[in-house]
Design brief:
It is a single chain. By secondary structure, the protein is an all-alpha fold. The C terminus is likely disordered. A hairpin with a 5-residue loop joins strand 3 and strand 4. It is globular and about 155 Å long. It has 56 helices and 8 strands. The two termini are about 65 Å apart. The chain has a two-stranded antiparallel ribbon with strand order 1-2. Helix 3 runs antiparallel to helix 4 and helix 30 packs antiparallel against helix 33.
Length: about 1500
């Protein structure tokens, strides 16, 4: 795509082999010889410096000249250091769109996605190591010291709690009153307030010049006073606690160190010296002012073994690498970075912080020469890779581990969180509760028709309730009016009179109560009659919706009782089992019983929480219903439109109309799986009206992108069209929503949250600006502020899309966690001409420069004169931008000793500060999502569910049954060697891109020809797969589709290449090779895992990326208004400026990566006399805005770089755990999923993704391994699984994920893996399944018994009938004996007659009936009876002729020897196994 960056703008008189610094443009500018990029100005020409005689060492080592240099450049750009200057060089040398596309995608994928995968890998690996070596660091929950004990103490509420008591702590000799004062909270808060005042006073100090350095002003006196106060505090604590007790606390040790240091600091000769650090460190004591901040700091720094060990390891690594670099490069000439150990240490530390590490490496590469440059580059890249990707990720892992909670504490917090979520607000919002302040004015209905002609309105419950309560209030009021006997007990003289009247009072009270009670009963009876009549009339008229809630039926009550009994099933079972055990196992049984009871208690608590939540919601609905009944203006938009007015219903229909994404079956009610369900879900995401407003807002933002300081909307009518369209559509939208839902005093009002306020604000700003359209906008005026507020228009999409609101909540919650952090003369300055060229000065030559006056002034970008400038400078240093310049200035101005300060601050900011941001944002993201409190088993279960959602059936058709040509092709294409050979060919074709394909280069055509050969091989591969799998089977796999697409593009490229043979065909050929290279990612498990992590992270972070782009758009519009005309400076140039919205977006994307964002901010702060101001039109001035730039850039950098990008890290870490798991911690391995996919393909022969419920049992039979179901041992589990599929899907079709989800639930311990609500729902489902299966088993057993009884009855009836017939025949033959000649043939004829109806019936009966134990006498012969004469059924009733009758009966009865009966049974059993039963229900349960 690029190749070399060797074309530069040089002067016209530049000669070959004589290129100097003075021949280059200032600054050095790349150019394009073919006119596609930048064109040199007048007096310069575009030349290739390599052709002019410059060596490779002088041209620099960054670029895309060959494969090695390209890898080096890509890694340099992926480190987000200097990448923007590479992009600017590419923009000047090649087409602009190509450079933007390449580098922005490179930053997004490599720097933001792939780089964060390393963090995910380190976090997961560290978590595994922590589990194995947890004993090394100890438990994180041990917060109390060993010198303290705990005892029970009764609190104010009457409860008991454990309180730490310092028993062994020694006490001092101070009086008890002083010890009590020292331990009081008043003394503690007084000391902290004094520390805060001291910090404020110290922050108010500022630099007054060198002459006032030794002047002791009021700040010095205040410091003396505070030092004396804190010294007295320390002495008081020592007096009260004793020296041993005082020094035993770590906090007191730190305070004593501050006391000694600050006492020395107030000594006049040591004031404003290095002892000032002790005064500054007093601010650390303010951590104890907030318990939340103290707890947070303790979580991070309290367990010091892990973090301290990592800091020591980092320091040791720096020392070792600095020593190695010192020995390697100390002898190199013209390289002063490694001459001494301190310089080598600073250089390696600079590489660790990534600030200017490319400059360190480039200078070293130039100094060592072209021969050793590759080795040195590999050395620095490996060190940078380890330091930035592995070491920094270890800090993130340690911080996340410190923020992690114990498993038991997680379970406790889950219960508490569920209880807190259940405590929803029972009260209505304040905007609705205002109606309670007004008297009730219910509207009455006047009936003018017969009751049968109209629907009777529902009786107002609030009115009836008030009516009944009024009777009770009247009764209580009457009782209060009566004199009380106890009220007059104070007067002794009146006691006798009251005792005499007591009987009269009681009688009067009893009579009044009986009267009131009688009246109440009568009125309640009457009210019940009215309610029943009204309800009956409404039921007859069809309006049954608002009837009173019925009481729970007996069946429902019994069902509830059974559920409560099921919760005690485990306990009762354990008790029954324990009866037969020995005394040794009773302890274990008792512990298991206690555990079961604890689980039951936990279930009851969850049920109570759920009921509490339902009651709270019900109370809120009741309050809202009462307000609706008693106040006519409640829920009326603008107090004008009626609640059920036709116009309001019409507006509601328009506002709430949306696409129905779920297609349900009208018969079964199940949701159908559509082919384009993702598109349907997207269409149904918001309503049609919101979709229209999203499109209008996007079009309006596109119109705003064409605005600039030179193309203003006030003076361009074409741009005003977008404003009018936006305001008109938003006016219609707001009017419809207000008429449908109300403005403010309605339950679903437009202004009910911050989103509604933002909508109204954006609308008013747009309306005011459109009505005003000021022709002149002075800088820093109200009109300019209005234009900046107009730039908030893209934020409307946050309100319109529900998922975008979650992004806003994450950002706001991220903010919550983050806030918890004189001379004279002239001298000559050399101008930096180029960043990449390394030209050597000729004899007598000087670099271009100019003379400037020498004055005593601060550096341009930073100073520490006051606390505000110091905070700004340190904020820039915390972002690791510009700290090298700050270090050099401090060392040059103050001394090398003070350079330690900046290195310590950068180390804390880089290793702990920035990683702390990452860890806190990840922890906050997990907490908001609900995964922070998950135990290890619960997290594995959530990962398994997410992994199963991604799993898909194998899109691999079965092998052809016959062993023909297709089967052989199938075996060849599926062989591992064939797949590996294709992967090797893909890599070989990718190597062809190691050299740039240029039309003028002679090597290009042979490389393209080799690529054509590879393409033909891939065409052959696709053809073989099409033959083996058939076109329909080949098209099922997405990977095959991608291969077919790339191969088709390759064939098209071959045709275009040999027909056109130009630069565009070569570029197409390179693109085809790149597309082909991505096919290799799916051929290896690890590469596939990483690719899935990146792809799924992109999918899940879609709305975060969109939110980031919307913020970029808002800031870009505001940047055009604020800094659109700022003059060029150090970093504001023709590439980076805010003249248009497009360029502003590019600059902001550069700031997101942190590339010199602070220098751009200082360029936008330029003020007179360094610019030309204008007081009337902001587009006529080239000055910046100091306050605006400070707020603009700092807020943008914090929101994007510290929060939004870390949210991407959180998503990647979360998704990486889905695909990365060892064999020990995974619930279902990849082999299990693979085996299930293979079995599914065997059952789903049509590849539809669904199978009938009746085939689930065959799928479960075929499973092997960890998912195998043994029918001999787990027959009941098999029945449960089959019935679960029938119950959940109503006997319809089940999908791949349905069966896999059922197996996953059955394969885990739900008590450990499932959360509380999901656990209750799952246990209830399983209990229901067990009951239904038990019922059906009993039903089937009864049916079998009935069948056997009926079979016995039929058999006995048939035997009696045959006996009767045989007796009649024998009697007839005995009375009329036939001749032997006629008898035998007749018997034979009767036996062999095919028309005999009894024989087929008997044979059919034998074939259809299965052999049972009852048939043993009729069809089988015991082995003990072999060889003995058989006693026939007909012999028992024959009086004579036994021998002849025996022979006749033997001929009449079927042969029942053992061989024939065994063959019949075998035939029947074979038929039962081979016939596939399509029945469901009872037959399915009877398997």
């Amino acid at each position: 795509m690029f190749g070399t960056f060797n074309h530069h703008c040089v002067t016209n008189d530049t000669q070959k082999d004589n290129v100097t610094w003075n021949n280059l443009a200032i600054p050095d500018t790349h150019c394009s010889p073919d006119g596609e990029g930048y064109q040199c100005p007048h007096g310069f020409k575009c030349m290739d410096l390599e052709e002019l005689g410059l060596s490779r060492q002088e041209l620099g080592y960054s670029g895309f000249n060959e494969l090695g240099t390209s890898i080096f450049t890509v890694y340099e750009a992926a480190s987000q250091e200097g990448w923007v200057f590479l992009m600017y060089r590419a923009i000047d040398s090649f087409p602009r769109w190509r450079s933007y596309f390449y580098f922005i995608t490179l930053i997004f994928f490599l720097a933001w996605l792939v780089k964060n995968v390393f963090i995910a890998v380190i976090i997961e690996t560290f978590a595994e190591i922590r589990v194995q070596f947890q004993q090394m660091w100890g438990s994180r929950s041990s917060t109390t010291s060993t010198a303290t004990t705990q005892m029970f103490h009764e609190d104010a509420a009457g409860g008991w709690q454990l309180v730490a008591v310092d028993v062994n702590k020694p006490h001092g000799r101070a009086p008890a009153c002083l010890q009590q004062l020292m331990r009081s909270s008043v003394f503690h808060m007084f000391i902290l307030s004094m520390v805060a005042v001291d910090v404020i006073v110290a922050a108010s100090n500022y630099y007054k010049g060198e002459n006032h350095r030794r002047h002791y002003d009021e700040f010095y006196l205040a410091e003396v006073a505070f030092t004396v106060l804190f010294d007295l505090e320390a002495l008081l604590k020592i007096w009260c606690l004793g020296f041993t007790g005082y020094i035993s606390s770590s906090l007191h040790k730190f305070e004593s160190l501050l006391v000694v240091g600050t006492t020395l600091h107030i000594y006049p000769d040591l004031y404003h010296s290095q002892f000032t650090y002790f005064q500054v460190l007093r601010v650390v004591r303010l951590i104890k002012i907030s318990p939340a901040l103290e707890d947070f700091v303790y979580k991070i720094f309290g367990p010091g073994k892990k973090l301290g060990s990592l800091v020591v390891f980092t320091a040791s690594l720096l020392i070792v690498m600095s020593a190695i670099s010192l020995q390697m490069f100390c002898f190199v000439e013209e390289l002063d970075r490694f001459t001494t150990f301190p310089r080598a240490f600073m250089s390696m530390f600079q590489i660790l912080t990534q600030e200017g590490w490319v400059d360190v490496m480039d200078q070293t590469l130039v100094a060592v020469g072209h021969m050793w440059a590759p080795v040195v580059a590999i050395y620095f890249i490996l060190y940078h890779l380890f330091a930035t990707l592995i070491l920094l990720s270890l800090f993130v892992a340690v911080i996340l581990d410190n923020l992690e909670l114990d498993e038991d504490l997680k379970k406790l917090k889950q219960l508490k969180q569920s209880e807190a979520n259940a405590d929803t607000k029972e009260k209505l919002p304040l905007r609705l509760r205002i109606f309670e302040k007004f008297p009730n004015r219910p509207q009455m209905v006047k009936i003018s028709k017969l009751p049968s002609d109209f629907t009777v309105p529902r009786i107002r419950e609030s009115f009836m309730k008030q009516f009944i309560d009024r009777q009770q209030q009247d009764t209580s009021c009457l009782f209060r009016r009566l004199p009380s006997a106890s009220s007059s007990s104070c007067d002794h003289s009146k006691r006798s009179a009251i005792e005499d009247n007591k009987y009269i009072d009681q009688k009067l009270r009893r009579s009044i109560f009986s009267i009131r009670a009688r009246n109440l009963l009568e009125k309640e009876t009457t009210i019940n009659k009215i309610l029943r009549a009204c309800t009956r009339q409404r039921m007859l008229s069809g309006s049954f919706e608002g009837q009173p809630a019925k009481e729970r039926s007996i069946l429902s009550v019994q069902h509830h009782i059974r559920q409560e009994r099921r919760s005690l099933r485990h306990g009762s079972t354990s008790q029954r089992i324990s009866r037969g055990k020995s005394l040794e196992t009773l302890t274990q049984d008792h512990s298991s019983t206690v555990r079961y009871r604890n689980a039951q208690r936990e279930d009851s608590e969850i049920k109570m929480i759920q009921e509490k939540k339902e009651q709270a919601e019900m109370k809120r609905k009741v309050q809202e219903e009462e307000l609706r009944e008693n106040h006519p203006y409640f829920d009326k938009p603008l107090f004008i439109v009626g609640r059920e007015h036709r116009f309001r219903n019409f507006c509601r229909m328009i506002v709430r109309a949306r696409f129905n994404a779920s297609k349900t079956d009208p018969i079964t009610g199940a949701v159908k799986n559509t082919k384009y369900h993702q598109l349907y879900d997207l269409l149904g995401l918001v309503t049609y009206l919101d979709w229209v407003m999203i499109v209008v807002t996007i079009c309006s933002c596109i119109s705003m992108m064409f605005e600039s300081p030179f193309t203003r909307v006030m003076h361009v009518p074409t741009l005003q069209i977008g404003e009018y369209v936006f305001v008109i559509f938003m006016s219609i939208e707001l009017n419809l929503k207000i008429m449908a839902d109300g403005l403010f005093f309605t339950p679903t009002a437009v202004i009910r949250d911050f989103g509604g306020v933002m909508d109204i604000f954006i609308y008013l700003v747009s309306l005011i600006f459109l009505c005003w359209l000021p022709p002149d906008v002075p800088p820093e005026s109200g009109a300019q502020l209005l234009m900046m507020l107009r730039c908030l228009r893209p934020l409307r999409i946050f309100k319109l899309v529900p998922q975008m609101r979650k992004v806003v909540r994450e950002v706001l919650k991220g903010f919550k966690e983050i806030f918890l952090e004189d001379c004279h003369g002239i001298f000559r300055i050399n101008v930096s001409v180029s960043k990449n060229l390394n030209l050597k000065l000729r004899p007598g030559e000087k670099k271009p420069g100019f003379w400037v006056p020498r004055v005593w002034a601060n550096p341009r970008n930073f100073n520490f004169d006051n606390v505000g400038n110091a905070m700004l400078a340190l904020f820039e240093v915390l972002s690791l931008k510009g700290w090298v310049e700050v270090r050099d200035v401090i060392i040059h101005r103050v001394g090398p000793i003070h350079g330690i300060y900046i290195h310590v601050f950068v180390f804390l900011g880089c290793m702990i500060g920035l990683t702390l941001f990452v860890g806190v944002v990840i922890a906050n993201f997990n907490e908001n999502k609900g995964t922070a409190l998950l135990t290890v088993d619960q997290r594995r279960w959530e990962d398994l569910k997410s992994r199963l959602k991604i799993a898909q059936p194998l899109h691999l058709p079965p092998r052809p049954e016959n062993g023909g040509f297709r089967a052989k092709m199938y075996d060849i294409t599926q062989h591992p060697f064939f797949k590996r050979g294709i992967a090797v060919l893909v890599l070989a074709q990718s190597v062809l891109l190691s050299v740039k394909w240029d039309v003028d280069d002679q090597v290009t055509f042979p490389l393209a020809t080799m690529s054509v050969v590879f393409t033909f091989i891939f065409v052959l591969e696709v053809t073989m797969k099409l033959i083996a799998m058939s076109p329909a089977g080949y098209w099922q796999s997405r990977r095959n589709r991608y291969d077919l697409l790339v191969t088709s593009l390759g064939v098209i490229w071959i045709v275009l290449h040999f027909s056109l043979l130009n630069a565009y065909t070569y570029m197409m050929g390179t693109c085809v090779i790149v597309f082909r290279f991505f096919t290799i990612c799916g051929k290896h498990v690890t590469l596939k895992m990483l690719l899935l992590t990146v792809v799924v992270s992109m999918y899940k972070s879609f709305f975060i990326i969109v939110g980031m782009f919307l913020l970029l758009l808002c800031y870009a519009f505001a940047g055009v208004v604020l800094f659109g005309t700022v003059k060029y400076g150090e970093n504001i140039n023709r590439h980076a400026n805010f003249s248009t919205a497009g360029k502003a977006i590019t600059v902001l994307f550069r700031i997101v990566t942190g590339e010199d964002w602070n220098k751009i901010m200082h360029d936008c702060m330029v003020q007179p006399p360094f610019c030309t101001p204008d007081k009337h039109r902001y587009w006529e001035t080239d000055c910046g805005n100091y306050a605006g730039a400070l707020i603009y850039f700092c807020s943008f950098y914090v929101i994007i770089a510290y929060i939004m990008l870390n949210l991407l890290v959180a998503i990647i870490v979360e998704n990486f755990s889905l695909f990365y798991s060892t064999e020990e911690d995974q619930l279902l391995s990849y082999n299990d999923l693979r085996h299930f996919q293979i079995i599914w393909n065997m059952v789903d022969d049509k590849r539809e993704g669904v199978i009938p419920t009746s085939r689930v049992k065959f799928l479960l039979r075929l499973l092997r391994g960890r998912l195998e179901v043994d029918l001999d041992k787990d027959k009941l589990l098999f029945k449960h699984m089959c019935y679960e599929m029938e119950r959940l899907h109503s006997g319809g079709d089940v999908t791949f994920h349905d069966v896999l989800s059922m197996l996953s639930y059955r394969s885990v311990d739900i008590r450990k893996s499932l959360q509380l609500e999901e656990l209750l729902a799952r246990e209830q489902l399983e209990y229901t399944i067990e009951e239904e299966v038990a019922k059906q088993t009993i039903r089937m057993w009864l049916k079998k018994c009935l069948k056997r009884i009926r079979a016995k009855q039929q058999q006995s009836c048939s035997i009696i009938h045959s006996l009767r017939e045989s007796q009649q025949q024998e009697l007839s033959r005995f009375l009329n004996p036939p001749s032997i000649e006629t008898t035998v043939p007749s018997e034979d004829h009767n036996t062999n007659n095919p028309d005999n109806p009894s024989q087929p019936e008997m044979s059919g009966l034998q074939q259809l009936l299965s052999p049972t134990l009852s048939d043993r006498g009729g069809y089988r012969q015991d082995s003990s009876d072999l060889g003995r004469p058989q006693r026939k059924l007909g012999q028992w009733r024959l009086p004579a002729g036994r021998t002849s009758v025996k022979s006749i009966v033997c001929k009449m009865n079927p042969v029942n020897d053992e061989a024939s009966s065994g063959s019949e049974v075998k035939k029947w059993w074979t038929r039962q196994l081979t016939v596939e039963s399509d029945e469901s229900g009872d037959d399915l349960i009877d398997i």
